[in-house]
Amino acid sequence: MIARLVLLVAAALLPLAAQAGAQQYEPLAASVQAALHAAIADRAAPEPQFASIQEKVNWLTEMSGRLSRRIPDREARLDLLKTVYYEAKRAGLDPQMVLGLIQVESGFKKYSVSSAGARGYMQVMPFWVRLIGSKDSNLFHMRTNLRFGCTILRHYLDMENGDIYRALGRYNGSLGKPEYPNMVRGAWEKQWGWRK
């Protein structure tokens, strides 16, 4: 009876657990490595650009409300949201998809480390620092983590000719398995969907 209760509680908590995987090291052509390095090297201030001030206020207010339970500090929450928006747009990604990915990967825990060694909000594997970063790249630094994560996901989207499911599978190290892409898609649509 007690074992059954423990199993039911554990099963109920499974969807809440972070689903960080292990991005797989794949040798990169020198030109790809140089392009990815250049993509993460820009240190411009992450002030997101919206179509209007009203759209910016509406988006930040809506997303901040949805994130308030996970990140109670308003200033930290807005800083994360602005940076997610900036880095996602910079990489040509939907900011709400990136929020869904972060929810699944780390549960919005900045210092999350997976069993495979992936780090931070977007659970970036340390080998990426050697490939495209520099010795001072800190994957626990919010901006660095989001810049790397968005750049890597964009790279995988390009590799997969825009196929989001395959790109997400590569990102998580679970290519060919639908569970992870479906979890990100579910979080993206149910929790972070945005209507202007």
Topology:
Blueprint: H1 2-13, H2 30-41, H3 53-67, H4 74-90, H5 95-106, H6 127-132, H7 142-159, H8 164-172, H9 179-190
Helix pairs in contact: 3-4, 4-5, 4-7, 5-9, 7-8, 8-9
CATH topology: Lysozyme
The biggest beta sheet reads: none
The total strand number stands at: 0
Mean pLDDT: 84
Strand residue content: under 5%
Order of helices and strands: HHHHHHHHH
Structural class: mainly alpha
What does this structure look like?
The structure is a single chain. By secondary structure, the protein is mainly alpha-helical. The chain has a single domain (19-190), classed as Lysozyme, CATH 1.10.530. 58% of the residues lie in helices and 0% in strands. It is built from nine helices and no strands. It has helices at residues 2-13, 30-41, 53-67, 74-90, 95-106, 127-132, 142-159, 164-172, 179-190. Helix 4 (74-90) crosses helix 5 (95-106), helix 7 packs across helix 8 (164-172) and helix 8 crosses helix 9 (179-190). The protein is globular. The model is unreliable at 1-18 (pLDDT under 50).
Annotation keywords:
196 residues, Lysozyme, disordered N terminus, globular, mainly alpha
Outline of this structure?
The chain has 196 residues and is mostly helical. Helix content is 58%, strand content 0%.
